[in-house]
User: Fold this.
Amino acid sequence: MKTLETISHSISKEDELFIERVAEKIFKSGFVTPAIFFLEMTKPLALLGSHFLIFLGPVINAFIQSDKYYRSAQVFEEPKNIEKLLQAIEKLEFDSKNLEGVPSER
Assistant:
């Protein structure tokens, strides 16, 4: 029998890999700080934002052909997945600073 905690934290391995790929793209873009601010501000509106992305899907897919568009709307409708993305971005940032020898704040 699953407890409420294991049910609420269950995420497929495929979704975890997707979140990690998104985090790597954000990290490589160099916009880590703005992305973290934006994600933290929009976390409470995740479900509404997801529905808005689905609403705009046909228009956006007319210009940008992306199979991952609806997948990202589905994955990020849960605030816990946005939190996982934030943690993945912060981990990449922390690891890169440790490799460079920059003193950490932790």
The chain has six helices and no strands. The helical segments are 4-8, 13-29, 32-42, 46-63, 68-75, 79-100. The first helix runs from residue 4 to 8.
